[in-house]
Amino acid sequence: MNVDGSYKFFYEQSDGQKREETAELKASAADPEVQAISVSGSYEYTDNDGKRYLVTYTADENGYRPMVKQL
């Protein structure tokens, strides 16, 4: 984590699963004087049937919002 509260990471496992995430503090839409964390990222995985998926997401003061795509 950086001094300003932000962070970024990425990893890939030997089975091909991947994850990356970035976070930063932003002014809240409801009150610009209040800082809110905003996280965005993605991960890939393979289900039990061998289908591969990519999930991208944002999580902030408005909740967690994932989008799933079969690869």
Automatic annotation (TrEMBL):
Q: Name one GO cellular component term.
A: chitin-based extracellular matrix
GO molecular function terms listed in the Swiss-Prot or TrEMBL record: structural constituent of chitin-based larval cuticle
The lineage's top-level taxon is Eukaryota
Q: Would the keyword Aminoacyl-tRNA synthetase turn up in this protein's UniProt record?
A: no
PROSITE patterns noted in UniProt: CHIT_BIND_RR_1, CHIT_BIND_RR_2
Keyword entries, A-Z: Cuticle
What's this protein's name? Uncharacterized protein
- What species is given as this protein's source? Anopheles stephensi (Indo-Pakistan malaria mosquito)
